[in-house]
């Protein structure tokens, strides 16, 4: 009896669709994080350091080990307050 | 209900009577990689700053100690880059790919620690390690490690 290949189509569809969705999510996450896996379990310290990284390099995931800060770093700090 | 959230930026330069020190331009991953060496090299200045802050949280109170901390850390990072640049870069790039957690990057940490000891004479010491127990960064087969080789 011939192989019931039409019955295997749903399995193929499931595998493909799960694979495509997972790959797309992974690619999207890495694209937002400059090609690196996203950060997780971010606490307030990490948020503060990532904000400092943004001030130094322009992107929250930008990294440099150069000890000379760019000249904008002196004046681009911002703090959040309330306007009464 | 009564107030709007405002983001305030102040681009005015600091007053002239405050001495200026160039701020450290290294970002979070290189600093995390160098953290224990900064602790070993700059111990006195860091402790001075912490004790000063302990007295009063006012930012103007501890500017002098803060400048010393900045200068010491800048000096150490410059020395690290001069002597162990490739190991340093490899380690902090590994940290960046692993959520800046040390346990996934021991493979790169060991050459960096060896180079730092050989060239600059600094060792990584984890304060608070129980007596007689091997520090976590020296264990050959740790339990928490990267899953893939």
What does this structure look like?
The complex is a heterodimer of chains A (84) and B (149). Chain A is mostly helical. Chain A is built from 2 helices and 1 strand. The longest helix of chain A is centred in the first third of the chain and has 28 residues. Chain A starts with a helix and ends with a strand. With 149 residues, chain B is mainly alpha-helical. Helix content of chain B is 51%, strand content 4%. The mean pLDDT of chain B is 92. In chain B, helix 1 crosses helix 3, helix 2 packs across helix 3 and helix 3 packs across helix 4. Chain B has 4 helices and 1 strand. Chain B is globular and about 55 Å long. At the A-B interface, helix 2 and strand 1 of A face strand 1, helix 1 and helix 3 of B. Strand 1 of chain A pairs antiparallel with strand 1 of chain B.
Structural key phrases:
heterodimer, A: about 80 residues, mainly alpha, 2 helices, about 50% helix, B: about 150 residues, 4 helices, globular
Number of extended strands of chain A: 1
Strand content of chain B: under 5%
| Number of helical regions of chain A | 2
What is the count of β-strands of chain B?
A: 1
H and E string of chain B: EHHHH
Helix % of chain B is 40-55%
Fold topology:
The complex is a heterodimer of chains A (84) and B (149).
Chain A: H1 5-32, H2 44-57, E1 78-83
Chain B: E1 4-9, H1 28-41, H2 43-55, H3 63-97, H4 106-119
Give a quick precis of the structure.
The complex is a heterodimer of chains A (84) and B (149). By secondary structure, chain A is mainly alpha-helical. Helices cover 50% and strands 7% of the residues of chain A.
